[in-house]
Amino acid sequence: MSEVALARPRNRKRFHLRNVGPKLVATLLALALAAVFLGPMYLVVITSIKSNKDFLAGPFALPSGVTFEPYRQVWQELHFGDLVGNSLLYASTGAALAVLLALVPAFALSRFDLPGKAVLFGIFLTGLMLPQQTVLIPLYATLRTLHLLDSKIGLIIVHGIYGMPAQILILRGFMTAIPSEIEKAARIEGATDFEVFWKVILPLSVPGIIVGYSLNFIAIWKEFVFGLVFLNHEANFPVTVGMLKLNSDRYMSVFNLPAAGLVISQIPIVILFILCYRKLTSGNFVGAVKG
Fold first, then answer.
1. DSSP labels for 126-146?
2. Which domain, by its residues, includes 28?
3. Into how many domains does the chain fold?
4. What angle do CA 94, 276, 173 make, to 5 degrees?
């Protein structure tokens, strides 16, 4: 057998290892990152269905017996259903208000050549750069003047206005990507600016609206500072503020109740992702422009 024939299997093996090496490293890195993110989730879920005795015996071990008593206690005795309902109200209406406030500015900034458009866009984006702590005092004074402190409507308005800059950024980028041929065709048919916005741009922007709404919904759901500062009565608390009850001295020696509260508080986010996943990943301009 010639040396060339012997060298071919060796070259193929080297070539195979050269291709497999990076994929193996990427796979191991992905598994490590998944463990970092899924490890705490696993610990919380397992703790929520354990007795305290099982948790102290082995925090990461499987429970000797599954119990859902912590969920019953959190839901009924701590009135967790009211907290979840408040958070659903704040997140759904606050995110919707932010999207409504951003639609027209995003349309104008994406489709029209306005004088000083770049400056105007930069002013809108300034809201993204302001930490919550910098606006607490002005917002508190404004809500007190309007008699909206410790009210659900006041917190909804705060969430809507505070989330508007991010929605403008998302929707402007999305509307800018809509092919100009679609708008030109509508104007040739005699459509006005409002008709172009209402009948052309807005329907094609539905995936972008869903993206912006979903992100703002999650941001409001996780928000803690505004609810803590602007609300006083427990009947108005969102779930993030209400979770403070599980950190009191009464429950510090009980590990499964805070874990059950955390699991319950994340269920709406999981449901939102499942409902919006197909829409977020589907094409939005397919068939809009014919060759």
1. HHHHS-HHHHHHHHHHHHHHT
2. 3-48
3. 2
4. 70
Summarised one tens digit per residue, pLDDT across range 39-57 is: 888 888 888 888 888 887 8
Same domain? 145 vs 25 = no
Residues whose CB is less than 8 angstroms from the CB of residue 43 and which lie 6 or more positions away in sequence, other chains included = 59, 60
Contacts (Cβ under 8 Å, ≥6 apart) of 164: 98, 101, 102, 124, 127
Q: Round to whole Å and give the CA distance between 282 and 111.
A: 24
Q: b/e string for 30-56 if b means 16 or more Cβ within 10 A?
A: eeeeeeeeeeeeeebebbbbbbeebbe
* 61 assigned to some structural domain: no
Q: What are 75-101's pLDDT values in tens digits?
A: 887 788 899 999 999 999 999 999 999
Model pTM? 0.82
Tell me the residue length of the chain. 291
Instruction: Give me 282's structure tokens.
Output: 């589907």
Amino acid at 61: A
Whole-Å CA distances, 62 to 32, 56, 89, 256 = 21, 12, 36, 14
Q: Which residues contact 35 (CB under 8 A, 6 or more apart)?
A: none
Task: For residues 223 and 88, state if they share a domain.
Answer: yes
DSSP readout, 270-291?
HHHHHHHHHHHHS-SSTTTS--
